[in-house]
Design a protein that fits this description.
Distance between the termini: 73 Å
Strand order of the largest sheet: 1-2
Oligomer: single chain
Largest sheet: 2 strands, antiparallel
Structural class: mainly alpha
Amino acid sequence: HFCLPITITDIMGKQKRNKSKRGSKQNSNKTALSASSATSSANEEKGASTIVSKIRHGDPRVRHAALVALSSTLFHSSSLSAAALQKERQQKQSHVRLSAKANKPVVDASDETLLRALSERILDVDIPCATAATGCLSNYVSFYCIGDAEESSPEAEVASEVMVPILFQRIQRSLDKITSLGSQIESSIAKKVGETANAASAAGAAGSSAIDKMFAFNTEQWILVSLSLNTLAGLIENFPSAVERVSAASLSTLCAVLPLVEKSIQLTKNGMEESNGDCILDASSNASRAIHSLLDDNIAIITSLQPTPLTHIVTELTNTITNAKMPHMTRLHASGALVSLRKVLVLDEELKSARGREYDAVVAAVQTCTDGTVIDLLSNLFESGDKNHDPKQLVLRMIELSNKCQSMKQDEMMESQIMSEVNARKEPARMIARRQKELKESKKTKAENEDMKEAMMVEDKDGVKKAEETESQLDDVKDELDGVVKSWRELIGSYKLALELVANLCSGREDQDDDIEDVMYPDDDEHMWDSDDEAKLVSAANVAGACSMEMTCSPSERVTFSSMSSKHLLARIIFFFRSWVEFVSMLKDDVPALVAEDVDELLSTCALCLGNMVACDLSSLNEPSLKKVIMVGGQEKPVTDGLDMFWWELIAAISSDVSDGPKAHVTSVMLALLRHQPKARTIVNSAVLDLLLALITQQYNAEGGANNVQMKCNAISMIGLLCSEPHPSEVNARVCSALLERLRSPLSSTSDDNDADSEKARQSLVIMHEILDVLMDMYGGDDSHDEVFGQQDVLGHFQRCLPGFKRRVKKTVANSTREELDTWNETALNCSRFIKYKKG
């Protein structure tokens, strides 16, 4: 019943939960509402009290039965996912709270008393009870706790004040028991091996039985440890207050899991109990994940570590990363923990200057491991992939099993319907006999009818047996399908985590001050464009510009970037990126929604990673290319250096037959390359310019939706960057014509001024904003193709477009973010200034 999460993400999205607000109702409804609420509250309290009393019962059998029932109902993964979705909808739409209240279950999974009772059972002396309780809470944090709960909420208090300390106690107790059992098992195995043949034949059966029991106890403890670590990692990722409850000593407890895992795996092999190793490996992944989540951006706990325990932690992490027997996720999370240490110990100059020389050795060890071991691991992963799983074969098998499962369900429904009809007739033989009697058949015929009756009874029994066999076969197919989906999710999760690590290594230090004064408009329904705000907007833009763009690299970072280049990490990730861009189209099948969503997330993460890498000015961009030729649109394109190869790999990817989703991610990487590597702008030829203009002018694809809009915006921004370089008037005229065509009809071939769809209006604003910014950059200078500006009537387009732009902003207030509204307001003001400037 316990479903551990498969896809692990370290950069957790944070969201505040809106407080419930009751709207005022008519007096005639108040009494009924109050009575209904009171009844519901009483039922909920009674239901929770009954369950809690069983969980706290003195008989372990009663406790275990109650906990198992909870794990298959209220705390089952599907129930918690549905409850989390309902909670999210309530947060977004306050007007449905009343109706949601009516559908609220008798007992809620977030009930404070119930969570406290489950937390108590984590330390239950009965291991099955402790496992069931921990499994319920593991599902709770994995499937219900989406984003942060309010720090003042009861569930946040239980998570930080109750669950975290208890989980650490459970982990420490189980580790002690595992260590003790390990010694006993080693002793028993050695004793068995040293026995003489006669003694072995006499006592062999008893000895094997004792060893088997110890292995069973050991497996129970590891399952409990794995669930406890998964629960703890979820609490750390979802509740900031839970992080505050973890001390440096607790961190050492987590690190103690890793060497014990390797020892236990070896022990299971010596005892021929390798089938028990999965739970141990799961525990290693959950342990390294908990360490990674705990150290991520946690300056307080990192700076509290003294040199000796810090050295021990770095040593254990390094040993885990280099251990090829460990799962990919274990090694990657250990690498993430080391990168988090590096960010504070190596890159934070203020802390380095305030720290004593006794830390020099461990700081050097962190940097050495990052530049060598971690980058080796990442480079090998992107070069060789996961040798145990081929993504294409996994998806094809997933489709095959899904279709088979669906077919078997339909057959089962048909058989069930037929059986229901047969049972509804009750005695079909008698009905046949009645018909035969009406035809005045002989006694012989009646005897035959009796035989038919017996035959039909046998047939009914055979039908029931066949239905049971079919159900068993269906369960087997479902289990295999679940296994394939799990393998797929683990594969995608490991790739995403590896890409996030590379992106973090290339992100540099965050020296910018984000606390820029908000000078935009107040929160009201009217957004006016007043020239008095111009000075504030210009000032804000200057402050933002002064804070940004160039990333200054420290000597440590330059060493890291040099290591990346020497391992060809950039080239391997761009090859990896292109293969996944074409992955879905290569299957040529109806791809499951799960696969399409995971691939889109993977491409998004990869695009972010590549964008960070090209901003670092890696030396591999100027070194000889790993490839000499790249196939672009069926033709060979010679390449020389790394920058050349990188660009034409992107062009080859976007030229292939793929949907708008992958193209949106490819264009975002192209934009990052042109922005951070000005030399790349000289590679662009007329064919690529035609391609970019075609992306801008092609009709809006409603099926592509946001991806289509993002692709167009990226292409528009690239055109703006290219036009910032010297170019002939003919090129300028072509570009200007394409931009104005799209400005006149941002999403379709007709004007969208009367478009009632607010989301479509918002997407129109996104495109118009990009076009207006690019046009102002193109023609805002003193020598900026004035003849084209006049011939194309750019000024007239601005004057006609601006009122419609403002109206769209007002229309989309409800479904746009504050940042978007502020950006569009600034664009409108800049357009007004631009019109005044051009008019003279």
